[in-house]
Every structure is written in structure tokens, then in C-alpha cells.
Design brief:
This protein is mostly beta strands. It has no helices and two strands. A two-stranded antiparallel ribbon has the order 1-2.
């Protein structure tokens, strides 16, 4: 496919199967009225760390 993605990355799965970590928050545009932007990392939980 020419990218770092694999076909497994495009598969559907329950979002609760991922573990997320907030990396940073930024204000986009004017500081007074700018929109908030959140960057996060999502990693697939392993079988042993999945919530039941």
C-alpha cells in the first residue's frame, strides 16, 4: 500500500480494545477564541490487559 499502515489497521474493532494516552493539548488559532486540539496515542490492548 505504500504507507506504514497495514490491512489490520483498517479492520474494525471495539474502541474499548484500545488504551489511550493524551500526548498534548494545543490551542489552534486566536488564544482567546481558538479551538482546542488534542493529540493522543492509541495502542491496542493485549489479551491480558483487556477490560472484561
Amino acid at each position: 500500500m505504500g504507507t506504514d499502515f497495514s490491512y489490520d489497521d483498517m479492520a474494525t474493532r471495539d474502541v474499548d480494545d484500545d488504551e489511550r494516552q493524551l500526548l498534548r493539548e494545543d490551542t489552534v488559532g486566536d488564544q482567546a477564541v481558538g479551538d482546542r486540539e488534542h493529540s493522543q496515542e492509541a495502542r491496542r490492548r493485549t489479551t491480558s490487559t483487556r477490560r472484561r
